[in-house]
């Protein structure tokens, strides 16, 4: 079972207190009507799904109830960091610039 | 040791397996059984290279050779044949899907299963013991009735059973009222059942090899070479292998392979777990599934209870999952079958499943000429092995989708023509 540190509760708690909430740092397009079908499809369905480091969201459902971000290795399941919503990861995934 | 040095493996094409052959080999102390397939060195180029030596990839190779006469084919497998999800699933075969497109595809596959042992001259131990999908709430029962009606309109053998009928079929199931998961009824597909998962891979491998297909194990694809929007071949741990067509059937790693060609797929990979108990005397002669409690169970011919869990919600490529999912599944199984509460579990493992947003597979050409994908089977690909291979081989051979595969093009995520099978595929496999 994963051990996840909640940046709001400042406690490391068992995975069962959390719900996975998908890839992090996806921004809803500001003008969906202006998008092509391909761009809208990409926003809805295309995910990075990396074999390796992944920035993802969890929700501390049985704790503070807030969403948080995490960087996890999808092969080893190692949790490298968790950070608050609105913040940027300190560990970039391969092929990712520091700028995101 | 002396025994193994005396064994002479012949390099001839496999002989027919039969009762007479068994007797003949028994008289010779079983020392001259031929290898089931060759282990050739890869050639520098092939007409078709298939990435992934699981059931779907091997079936694709077999039907390419058998139906379309395309025998200059290599199957590249990074591990051993059938060592991925083919060897890790709970072997349930059924076709009671909701929508026309999916039920036709899975029912076509079920038709092929019925003749598969004869076709391959390899006993895949297909056992049509039927599948029950339990309903525990009124809404479950409404969904079951809707699905059974849809199945019957598509000519699939399905019926709705009430509590008494379920109890009659499965005496060990606790159907008493007031339970945590009361059994209000079930859908019943008599033609459904199970098969021996390894045998399916081995049967297709042996039959494909006999038709001239090269099965190349321990060879991982590390890149896909493309030029001018056309595929040229694949980079492997053993060098470049040229190919006129490249077909990816890599299940959980499909997204990784797609990225090698600069493509993105609407797929996320998740761990999915299963476990088996110690062998028991025969006590369960059908397959029980329950979407609501996330569990499904059958008894193998060897006697062990085969139990499947749900997927982990998070993405993962490690072939293992979270322990709490196993715990939830076993809680439900023990609620449904109190008699199993003291059965000891033998082994537990995980596979990596490639799930699509609509819980239906992708069988498709891509933006790269000569590059094809067959993936996204998610939690329930094993049952589709023969049908998937058949329609994918046809798609490859003619460079256009097979009639049954048309609806499963990757384009559907742009056009919006999704095939939502979460109800029928959800947890159930």
Structure description:
The complex is a heterodimer of chains A (100) and B (429). With 100 residues, chain A is mainly β. Chain A has a single domain (3-84), classed as Folate-binding fold (2-Layer Sandwich). Chain A contains one helix and six strands, in the order βββαβββ. Chain A has one helix at residues 37-45, and strands spanning 3-6, 11-14, 19-23, 53-59, 67-73, 79-84. In chain A, the strands form two sheets. In chain A, strands 3-4-5-6 form a four-stranded antiparallel β-sheet, with no helix packed on it. Chain A has a two-stranded antiparallel ribbon with strand order 1-2. Chain A is globular. Chain A starts with a strand and ends in a 16-residue tail after the last strand. The model of chain A has no long low-confidence stretch (mean pLDDT 93). By secondary structure, chain B is α/β, with parallel strands linked by helices. Chain B is built from 13 helices and 18 strands. In chain B, strands 1, 2, 8, 9, 10, 11, 17 and 18 form an eight-stranded mixed β-sheet that branches. In chain B, strand 10 (230-236) and strand 11 (239-248) form a beta hairpin. In chain B, helix 4 (100-114) packs across helix 11. The longest helix of chain B is centred in the middle third of the chain and has 16 residues, at 138-153. Chain B is globular. The two termini of chain B are 43 Å apart.
Features:
heterodimer, A: 100 residues, mainly beta, Folate-binding fold, four-stranded antiparallel beta sheet, two-stranded antiparallel ribbon, 9% helix, globular, B: 429 residues, alpha/beta, eight-stranded mixed beta sheet, 13 helices, 30% helix
Summary, kept brief:
The complex is a heterodimer of chains A (100) and B (429). Chain A is mainly beta and 100 residues long.
The residue fraction in helices of chain A comes out at under 10%
What's the structural domain tally of chain A?
1
Proportion of beta-strand residues of chain A = 25-35%
Q: What percent of the residues of chain B sit in helical stretches (DSSP H or I)?
A: 25-40%
Q: Main β-sheet of chain A, in a few words?
A: 4 strands, antiparallel
* End-to-end CA span of chain B: 43 Å
Fill in the CATH topology of chain A.
Folate-binding fold
Query: What integer value in Å does the Rg of chain B equal?
Result: 22 Å
Number of helices of chain A: 1
Structural class of chain A: mainly beta
Main sheet overview of chain B: 8 strands, mixed
Most extensive contact:
A-B, 23 and 24 residues
Overall pLDDT metric of chain B: 93
In the predicted model, the low-confidence regions of chain B spanning at least 5 consecutive residues are 1-12
Percentage of residues in DSSP E strands of chain B: 15-25%
DSSP strand count of chain B: 18
Q: Which regions of chain A contain 5 or more consecutive residues with pLDDT less than 50?
A: none
Note the quaternary state here.
Answer: heterodimer
